[in-house]
Each structure stands twice: as C-alpha cells, then as structure tokens.
Amino acid sequence: MTNTRFPAWRVLLTLVLVVCSKTHAQKTATSPNTSQQLLALDFRNDGQHLTALVGQQIEITLGTVGPPQYGKPEISSPAVRLVSTALWRTIPAGPTYIYIFEAAAEGEAQVTVPLLNTTPNNPQSPNQHTFVVTIRVAPA
Question: How far apart are CA 65 and CA 63, in angstroms?
C-alpha cells in the first residue's frame, strides 16, 4: 500500500512546486515601483510596433545558434533608454542576449539590435537577421 501512495505524493509535491513557481514568476513581472507589467519581447516581435508606458521596463531576449552574435542596440530617440545587457551562455546552442530598456519619456523610438557576422567567409548578409522594434511611449 505505501508503494502506491509514494508516486501520488511525488506528483502532488511537483504540482505544488510548479504552481508556486508560476505564481512567483507572475509577481516578478510587475515592477516594484509601479503596477506596470514588464514588456517582454523576443525574436517573434521583430518588425512590430508596440506601446509602453513611461517608466515601464522593456526586456528583449534574443538567441543565436552558431557564431553570429548580437551587437550593441541602437535607439533612435531618448524615449527609450538602455539600462543593462546580459549574456547567457547555453551549450550546445549559441548564447542568449538579454537587453533591458526603460520607457523613459513620451515619444517613439525604434530599437535596432544588429546581428553581427563573425565568420568573414559566410556569404549571408550580416543584417539579414537584425532585430527591429518600434516602441511608442505613452504617459503613465
């Protein structure tokens, strides 16, 4: 009898841990100073026009496979400012680049993150996978 209960106990514990971790992830997506949600973007948002509120945090996560690397983001106006960057190494795939921005002032900014070609003999255009997003910053 105890052998049949052990797997059920493990399933229940796993379920509780998953629910708790999802609740924690939802809480951390809200900025502690405001009730604004984090604007989390990735390669699926390439070419989009999005809206953020003044003071809102914007996170862009981009991954690569192989030698290409993402470069320093270019921002077209002071409506959005770069706060920090991080590089997360994932093996065997390529690195993941995380860029944290803040919607600093009302206006509109185009954020461009270039994909750099690190292999000179590769005929592929280095700008072929450049990430571009336009963010309109509205009042909070």
Answer: 7
Strand partners, 96: 63, 88
Beta-bridge mates of residue 57:
102
pLDDT score of 10 more than 70: no
Distance between CA 112 and CA 74 in Å, rounded? 5
Quote the CA–CA distance of 111 and 80 in Å, as a whole number: 8
pLDDT band at residue 123 using 50, 70 and 90 as cut-offs = low
**Per-residue three-class SS string for 61-87:** EEECCCCCEECCCEECCCCEEEEEEEE
- Average pLDDT for 64-74: 85
Q: What is the pLDDT of residues 73-86, one digit of tens each?
A: 999 999 999 999 99
Q: Which two tokens stand for residue 74?
A: 């270019």
Candidates 3, 102, 121; CA nearest to 53 is 102
What global pTM score does this model have? 0.69
Q: What share of the chain is helix, strand, coil (3-state, %, to 5)?
A: 20, 40, 40
Question: Residue 85 corresponds to which tokens in the numbers above?
Answer: 């960057």
